[in-house]
Amino acid sequence: MSITPFWQNKNLDEMTKAEWESLCDGCGHCCLVKLQDEDTDKIYITNVACRLLDIETCTCQDYPNRTKLVSHCLVLAAGNIDSINYLPETCAYRRLAQGLELPQWHPLVMGNKDAVKNSGASICDYAISEEYIHPEQLQEHIINEVGD
Ligand code: SF4
Ligand code: SF4
C-alpha cells in the first residue's frame, strides 16, 4: 500500500496547522532584514538576520510571540504567498503554490532536519545577527535585489 504525502493531496488552504508548519524547512530566508527604496519600492535583501533568529540553529527564539516582538515578522498564509515576492525558489510554500514538488532535500522528503543545511539553502552559514549591526550600516549588507 502506498500513502500519498499530505502536501501532494491537499491544497495549502486545506492543511492542518501542524502540516502547514512542517512545510517550513527552516532556511531562514524570510528572517533576513529587507530594505525598501522609498522612491522605487524596490526591495533589497541583506545578510542581516532578525535579532530573534538563533543563527546557530536557524530558528526563531520566540516563535509563539514573534509578531508581538518583531513588527515586520512575516506571517505566511495560503492567501498571501503569491503577493510575497522575496521567498526563495526553494521555499516549500512558494513551490506548492506554484504547483511544484518539494526540493529533494526537504526535511519532509528526507526525514532529516539537517538536510537543509547540507543543501546550501540555509542562510545560517553567512547571516549576521541584527544585534551586531547599526541600522545605518544595513545598506552595506545588501546581498540581493528582489527580482534579480
Ligand atoms: S523562506 Fe520558506 S522555508 Fe525558508 S524559513 Fe521562510 S517560510 Fe520557511
Ligand atoms: S521574529 Fe522570529 S520568525 Fe519572525 S523574522 Fe524574527 S526570527 Fe524570523
Describe this structure in words.
This protein has 148 residues and is α+β, with helices and mostly antiparallel strands. Helices cover 20% and strands 15% of the residues. The chain is built from 6 helices and 6 strands, in the order ααββββααααββ. Strands 1, 2, 5 and 6 form a 4-stranded mixed beta sheet that branches. Strands 3-4 form a two-stranded antiparallel sheet. The longest helix is centred in the first third of the chain and has 6 residues.
Question: What are its keywords?
Answer:
four-stranded mixed beta sheet; two-stranded antiparallel sheet; alpha+beta; binds iron/sulfur cluster; 148 residues
Helix and strand topology:
Layout: H1 6-9, H2 17-22, E1 32-36, E2 43-49, E3 53-54, E4 59-60, H3 66-69, H4 92-97, H5 107-110, H6 115-119, E5 128-129, E6 142-145
Parallel strand pairs: 2-5
Antiparallel strand pairs: 1-2, 2-6, 3-4
